[in-house]
Design brief:
Helix content: 40-55%
Strand order of the largest sheet: 1-2-3
Low-confidence stretches: none
Structural class: mainly alpha
Radius of gyration: 15 Å
Number of strands: 3
Length: 102
């Protein structure tokens, strides 16, 4: 799929829905917030978003370098994915969030 073509992403997702998909997945989540929103508006199926390992690594390395506050950035990035329309978020931060009671 052409990553620059929003209409193709929506069209492919709707084809998946017609073929019996139970949910629609967007990955990487952070770079495709607009696609998450477009699919959310076009479909009634649950929209899942996958915050991939590269997104996780960028946050971890930025925090280790002292450039960012990891907790704030994790909450902000996951919040933006949710705000874009994701019903489910798959993230490598899940265990950290669960242990923190979030």
């Amino acid at each position: 799929m052409n990553p620059m073509n929003r209409r193709e992403a929506v069209r492919e997702s709707l084809l998946d829905e017609q073929e019996g998909a139970d949910a629609l997945m967007v990955k990487p989540a952070g770079a495709y917030l607009d696609i998450i929103r477009d699919i959310r508006e076009a479909s009634r199926l649950p929209v899942a978003a996958y915050q991939v390992s590269g997104e996780y690594a960028m946050i971890k390395f930025g925090a280790q370098a002292g450039a960012i506050d990891e907790d704030r950035v994790v909450r902000e990035t996951l919040g933006s994915i949710k705000r874009a329309g994701a019903d489910l978020i798959f993230t490598y931060f899940a265990m950290d969030l669960a242990l923190a009671g979030i």
